Amino acid sequence: MASCCPTMKFQRPFGLNRKVVSDSGRVSSFWGAEVVKANHLKAQWTSEDSDKAHSLFLLLRIAVSKCRILDLIKAGGYCEPLLRTPRADPKNVASIILGGGAGTRLFPLTSKRAKPAVPIGGCYRLIDIPMSNCINSGIRKIFILTQFNSFSLNRHLSRTYNFGNGVNFGDGFVEVLAATQTSGDAGKKWFQGTADAVRQFIWVFEDAKTKNVEHVLILSGDHLYRMDYMNFVQKHIESNADITVSCVPMDESRASDYGLLKIDESGQIIQFSEKPKGDDLKAMQVDTTVLGLPPKEAAELPYIASMGVYVFRKEVLLKLLRSSYPTSNDFGSEIIPLAVKEHNVQAFLFNDYWEDIGTIGSFFDANLALTEQPPKFQFYDPKTPFFTSPRFLPPTKILDSIVSHGCFLRECSVQHSIVGIRSRVESGVELQDTMMMGADFYQTEAEIASLLAEGKVPIGVGENTKIRNCIIDKNAKIGKNVFIANADGVEEGDRQVEGFYIRSGITVVLKNATIRDGLHL
């Protein structure tokens, strides 16, 4: 259930992380680059001194010699750390979520609401995806840019993500930046594109609240995925990139709907084409085994597609929008293709579930895919939960039964019973006249599989178990093929060792108790 965000396994640029020292004392980089004044370069790269660290990296990359690593190894050389890779700090990262598009491809769902406000998965809205990913990644500086039909979106954000509502989030904030007009000719235009939307609010990065920001995430408000953004930022830092683009392998049938890219052996993007067609599309085919894909999968996915998720060094973003390309209005079709020619633009492989919810068809399919067994994506993950507005609604009532929030019910029968929060009821189970209190926490699918493999019982009710006239306290573990019905009609019974009592003819399974497989009560 946990998300998987592997980075591309390319060699890092030479001379960045290690030095090689021969017996003679000669210092060289890992691929033969001689390090000048190495003793003076053993500085820590910290988030407070990024400019100095960046200069050190540049110096290390320039200082090269003809020394070869194999000759050095034969001479008895050895390696030792030269410059420790800095760790990404979420306090130095700000996120900008783009929510201002008209959403014409999602019409009529967007006739009265912004695209990120469209409901998904029964109780969430699309904006909850990037917001929850930010929170789970530790990122607390979040801006949302809005323009079209933003009332319901703004209301949802204020109700759900009010970091100052009695909860101490330090210097965190969620700021809604609505499209507005200002004085002057330039100020009379609405957002002209994704880059222009950020440009019009670029002054916020001169505010005191963002003075320590070093990296800026650009996120979309209409994608479905689970991602740890700090892995993304870490790859960005390790590759010394100006810009990093998150990407996914893509098949030919959908490739023309996305920005496609080509990379070199170091992971640097050397070509970027926005939604190419025909021969231009064919020209963007690559051998995706370079991403670590097996040959069969690589043949099915011969393109590398941009997710529209970027991380910029803050000073690079400001320069691109203000001076380098002041008339370019879109990141995907203008800023990124131009920046590839002049900057170190790296690729980051996200090889997990990701879906662009941009059309009625993709929206419909993504929602129904949540019901598959097992689903490719699910909202249920106790380690990285998805947040939404608290609604304080009663549990679901189905015929003569009540099912509470966050339950897993698989092909079971529930009659005249109550199923408590986070309950897991497996296939073939029959509950009748039963009050099940639920669980205080989830066990992951991996944990459940491990317990079953060891012959142990996970929390919940196992397969083909029949339960009648029973109260099941929280976190109880009831195994497979169990029969609980008090068939002998006992009125009072104390069987604590076996995990239950009988009171007034009602079987009461104790909190945290384990009822072993096949037991008949």
Automatic annotation (TrEMBL):
Question: Main site of residence?
Answer: plastid
Q: Which GO terms describe its cellular component?
A: chloroplast
- Write down the chemical reaction(s) this protein catalyses: alpha-D-glucose 1-phosphate + ATP + H(+) = ADP-alpha-D-glucose + diphosphate
> One Pfam annotation, family name?
NTP_transferase
For this UniProt record, the keywords arranged alphabetically read as follows: Allosteric enzyme, ATP-binding, Chloroplast, Nucleotide-binding, Nucleotidyltransferase, Plastid, Starch biosynthesis, Transferase
Give one GO biological process term: starch biosynthetic process
**Gene3D superfamilies in UniProt:** Hexapeptide repeat proteins, Spore Coat Polysaccharide Biosynthesis Protein SpsA, Chain A
- Please tell me which top-level EC class this enzyme sits in: transferase
> Which PROSITE patterns does UniProt cross-reference here?
ADP_GLC_PYROPHOSPH_1 (PS00808), ADP_GLC_PYROPHOSPH_2 (PS00809), ADP_GLC_PYROPHOSPH_3 (PS00810)
Q: Where found, per UniProt?
A: Plastid, Chloroplast
InterPro entries cross-referenced by the UniProt entry:
ADP-Glc_PPase, ADP_Glu_pyroP_CS, NTP_transferase_dom, Nucleotide-diphossugar_trans, Trimer_LpxA-like_sf
The EC number(s) given in the record are: 2.7.7.27
Instruction: State what this protein does.
Output: This protein plays a role in synthesis of starch. It catalyzes the synthesis of the activated glycosyl donor, ADP-glucose from Glc-1-P and ATP.
Family membership, please give it: Belongs to the bacterial/plant glucose-1-phosphate adenylyltransferase family.
Q: How does it assemble?
A: Heterotetramer.
Identify this protein by name. Glucose-1-phosphate adenylyltransferase
According to its UniProt entry, this protein's organism is Brassica oleracea var. oleracea
